[in-house]
Amino acid sequence: MKEQKEVSIFNSISELADYIGRILIENLSTKGEGQYLSLALSGGSTPEQIFKYLSIHYKELVNWNKIKFFWVDERCVPPGDKESNYKMTCESLFENLNISKDNIYRIYGEADPKSESKRYSNILSKNVAPENNFPRFDVVLLGLGEDGHTASIFPDKLDLFETQEFCMVAVHPESGQKRITLTGKVINNAKNVLFIITGNNKAKIAAEVIEKKNKILPASFIHPVKGSLKWLLDSEAAKFLSE
Ligand code: 6PG
To answer: How far is ligand 1, taken at its centre, from the CA of residue 27, in Å?
Structure first.
C-alpha cells in the first residue's frame, strides 16, 4: 500500500485535538477482547495542550485502558525533571485519567543511555506486535523541530533511518543533551503516523518538509512503508503552505 499523505489544517488546538481523539476511537474500534492499541507519544511542548484537552474532553469517549502507552523519544533525565517527556505526559494526560501503570512503558531517562536503548528495544519486542521484524505501532504522534528533526533524529544523524536497531541513543546538536529515540524504520513501520505541528515558529519548516522543498531533513524521511501519514497543523503553522 503506497503511503497516503494527508494535510489537515485546524482553526484551533481543540479542533486538532478532536481529530486525534477521533483517530484513537476509530483505531480502538478495531481492537477485540484483550487487544490493545499501541500508541507512541512525542514530547516537547506541542503535545501538552492537546493532551490536556483530550484528558478532559475524551475522558469518557476513549477507552484509555485499551491503550498501551510508549514514547517516541525521551530526554536522558530523571522522570521528575522538567525536561522529561514522561513528566509532561503524566501532568497533561495521565493525571486526569486513571490509567493502569501496567499500560505505561516509560523510557528510563535516568538510566545509562546505551543500556536503556537496549532495554527499551526489548520492551518494544515484547509489547508491540511486529511486522517485517520491526515493532508496528498502531499510532505514532510526531512533532517537528524548527531544524526539521522529528523524534530525536537530528539533521546530523540521518543514519538513524538506516539502522536495524529499534531504539538508539541520540544527542541534541545544540544542547548536547542525550536522548533515547525510536529509529526511522520503527516509525516508518507504523500503521498511522500523525505529525502535529502548531505555532508560527513552525510555519517555515512545515512548508519546507510538507512541500518537499528540503528533502534531506529528518522529517522528510518519514514515509510509512504500509501505513498512513497525516500532517495536522493549526492555521499559524500552515500559513506558508501553497495549496
Ligand atoms: C522531544 C520531541 C521532539 C519534538 C520536537 C518539537 O522530545 O522534544 O519528541 O521531537 O517533537 O522537538 O518540539 P516542540 O513541540 O517543543 O516544538
So the answer is: 24
